[in-house]
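Human: Not sure, check this?
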Amino acid sequence: MAITQRSGKWQVRLENKLLPRKHFATFLTESEAQNYQAYMLSFLERGVVPLDLVEPSQKRSGHKISTLIENFRLSSPGPAKSDLATLARIQDEVGQVTVDKINAAWADIWVSKLKLELHLAPGSIRKRVESLARVIDWHNRKTTPADQPAPVNPLRVMPRGYSVYTAKEAEALVQTGKEPKKDTKRDRRLAPGEEQKICNALAGIKAPDRQRALTVDEDLALLFDLILNTGLRLREAYWLRCEEFDQGRGLLHVRGTKGHGGVIKPRLVPVVPALREKLRARCAGKTGLVFPFWDGDPANLGKVTSALSSRFKTLFNYAGMPDFTEHDLRHEATCRWATMRNKADNGWMWSELEICKIMGWTKTDMFLRYASLRGEDLSDRFF
């Protein structure tokens, strides 16, 4: 690696085991040469060959993005189910763009359009970029010869904070009567007295500000109790079977729903004593589904999930909590696991790693995302 001055210009020489031969580039100023050298080295040091240095025979194909997405959908294991809707949107928006046109400049323009034209939140922008990046990664793996390095994926080297609206972008939006969107962190928990309001509504007790009470629903009440005190996802809860409840040890053998490609990820979840008794009463002498919401047909899972989400929304609205959602119960459950005391010595019962196992997370950063601890939760640790 060297920069030398030749005939009033500055020449960069790049040598690396990833490159088939030495690479030369010439610039008018030394600063331009230094910037180019630093930029190229930032890729090569990570074992990535920048597209500018790829041999013509290795250049990415001219296939359209829509074609790549369709092929990726048919591959094994293919995209996750949660990714399909995003990929469909990408096909509609930029499906006619060919892969050889995707570079850093194109990525910047695309992200700018996602902000200024579609007015997406930063999280939605990152989801689109990451989804397309996975497609291009797959394409590069399939089309690069085994003895050659894969070309760089421009969507994998986006600058930090690329999805956040810049001051210039914010100004452009304001001129059109819009405001730049920001990431929102969901940390809604049950406030004092709110759990009792929900339980009263489920028991058919009329709220003071309502004309009539809700119909008593013991099944929904048990489902609420189960999610609140275990942190199970909605589908994991309503398709639970009586034989998956170990009554002797007080454990649930949960079929996790977050496996890639729909693969079930089993885990064990402990059951607090009060809930344990309710499940024992429900499952006594019974096999099959604990709840009657689902008929067992996999084709109806989406409908059941949507219907139950709607019922929880109605329940929380009745209890005077219109901003609360069923998924917030999972946040609440995480915090309850985190603050649970051991009766033997009043110490903390569960470690962060154990809580991740209970909640079905493979990364501990999910614990930080869900553990919306209140100030009083933290100050109580002094006593």
Notes: The first strand starts at residue 2 and ends at 6. Residues 66 and 92 are 8 Å apart (CA to CA).
